[in-house]
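Team,

Forwarding the record for the chain on the shared tracking sheet. I've put the sequence and predicted structure together so nobody has to dig through attachments.
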Amino acid sequence: MTRHYPDRVRNVERLAAEGDLPGLAEELLKTAITNNNQWSHDGEKVLATVRALPRDQRLRVTDSLVELSDPYHASSPTRLNALTLVELIGEDLPGDRLAAERAARLEEFGGMYCVQATHAAAALVEAERAAGRTPPAMAVAALRRTLIVLYWEDGASLKKAVDALTDPPLNPGEAWSDQALADLADRDEAWHALVRHALTAKSAQPNAKWEKAARALVEPLGADTVRDTLVAWLALVGRPRTRPFANTAHAYCVAPNDEYDPFNANAIRGLAWTLALLPPHPEAARALGALVETSLRKVQGLGPRNPKVANAGVVALARAEGEASLAELSRLATRVTYKTTLKMIGAGLEARAWALGLSRAEVEEMAVPVYGLTEVGRSVRRLGDCEAEVTVTGSKAALRWRNAAGKQVKAAPAAVKRDHADELKELKAAVKDIDKMLSAQAERLDRQFLARREWTYTAWRERFLDHPLVGTLARRLLWTVDGTPCGYADGDLRTLADEPVTAGGTVSLWHPVGHPPEEVVAWRDWLERHGITQPFKQAHREVYLLTDAERTTGTYSNRFAAHVLRQHQFNSLAAVRGWRNKLRLCVDDEYPPAVRELPRWGLRAEYWIEGVGGDGWLDDLTDAGSYLRVRTDQVRFYPIDAPENFAHASGGEYRMWLRDGREPVDALPLAEIPELVLSEVLRDVDLFVGVASVGNDPTWQDGGPAGRFREYWTAYGFGELGPGAKTRRDVVARLLPRLAIGERCSVEGRFLHVRGELHTYKIHLGSGNVLRTPADQYVCIVPAASGSAAVGGTGYLPFEGDRTLAVVLSKAMMLAKDDRITDPTILSQL
């Protein structure tokens, strides 16, 4: 800063006293270049000395500054320094020197995320306003962001300049803010006041004063109008920037084009809170739920896009009245993995439960909306002379139409679009909501095995079996009524012998643990006989019993040790399954293992992992410094209140962190862990390995970076099958007679053998990797990135959710007709 150059202060004072105005101008310019145009501390003395000169002398100094700078390079640092100095010392002088260049520099600022030269920016803004012109909106946006992102000690001048700029009310450049600004251009002052109030939402939650002011601002505008407007704006949040930043080198954030504008983010929070104050409406709840998910979407190198905005959406849903808001909270509880937001969702649900005198689980069950369905999985609605039918098949809803003549048509008839636009909009929204809620409810039901939930027969029928939405899932699952296993088929609950079950006392979800294998197989046959596809594995659910090796180790299982997993995929999957995990950074720090707490059992399961780096310090890391991969180790169980274990990020021994004089606690013997708990925890771990292992990546035939994982990739990609893969093998064997290509296929050991027109192939039933016989030449076939492999023509599938099963079947269908393959990448390998 200038205070480090006292000689320049003395030189300026001397030159000013001697009247050497050209020399003074040159010294000022050198000082500006040295100090990067920051004029705090001693710099104020320099400016004060020059400002004290008579006007005619200052006029000559400014003229000299213009002459000294390079007029042919308007964007050069020297020119910017001269331009800034002209404004700082010549604000009351006649003429408007360098006006065109000032305007050009402000336009240049508009393309930046934030501006480094804060003193210069403040001076240019003040000069532009003094000339009677408003600085460009994008420049104003950049300066607002600068005040939020950067904390210069001499930013007071910029804050003063920017605070005087009230237009535009929002920063342009984002899809939602551009739409809001376009709408506000045609609205009166009351709307502008509402947006300005939203911008004050800078705390974690709104206080009573904020809410009172918001209600007063909403009242004259009308609750319905405000809701419709805010929902339309929030629907655009998260869309790509309409004006991307071209130069992000000095953005002071990880991904400026993917993150929310920090100035606008406060407005989004305030608008979300405002929605919660309005009368309950499904559209408002839907908009808030979408805002939460959009704001938690991952950005590479950053993590969740904007957790503060997501949390504001949760706060709004928790405060809003009505079943729709409660349903959104319940749905988000199964979808959100970000710990802080998930904790807030849980607190919101607990508060609702306490207010109603119910448990959280009961509130979540009772909060599931029907979305207009009038019977399980179906509704019919008349719109004029036309008929709309919503049906749920599997995990998807569909909207079908019949015109006035009763003929089925592909799309909504013109009369419906013309005369029933609002009803049509709501129907389409309901179909999308059903798809999202079905996924959330399937996940919630899948977690009930360890929750040990039991229901009275009456409550269970109301909340599950006969619920118009949840019933589409519950009727595809197996239940235990007063100890008798049963499933729903042909309009009734039925036993394995197809005898009806019409009443009962207590109901629970059936699990294969504790049932003899022949009974489990019989239920699989029953489901197939009735053509029932389960929403997740239940009758085909893997059971993980204690092995001899685990009896020998006693307190830990090595069954899923020594695997190499993609860390970020593992982390996301662990969160979805209810595990708590922290991404390993390549730093000198310690981390706990991946943990799943089981409060109903008083247990804590741990999966020990460590970061896997390369030979170089920065090898195999993300830009943010986290490991790309982790290596797995033991699975252990502890009492839920035992002190946590920690190990270094890059590996080493796990040690228990003992605080407050606590004694160490030993891991529990695996033989003492209840069978159901052991099986479900190991099933989760098997899932982590099966999905996130680098061994099932078809592009890793070279062993990954520097070939370090070649041995592991080969062993996993073509090795012995785990429990999940063995289940997949049995399913494929039963499906083959149903397939059009069944005569060309056979299951032998670890592989599905496929006879094509050109070659014969082996598809590994664990990884989905392909070998071409007889030389076992590897064939790299990369599945669709969308995760939904095409499996048309398979007919009946016993359960949903096994992507590897879909990949295996889709590859088999393609390879059976290998003479029709057109993909050049695959053809080159055949």
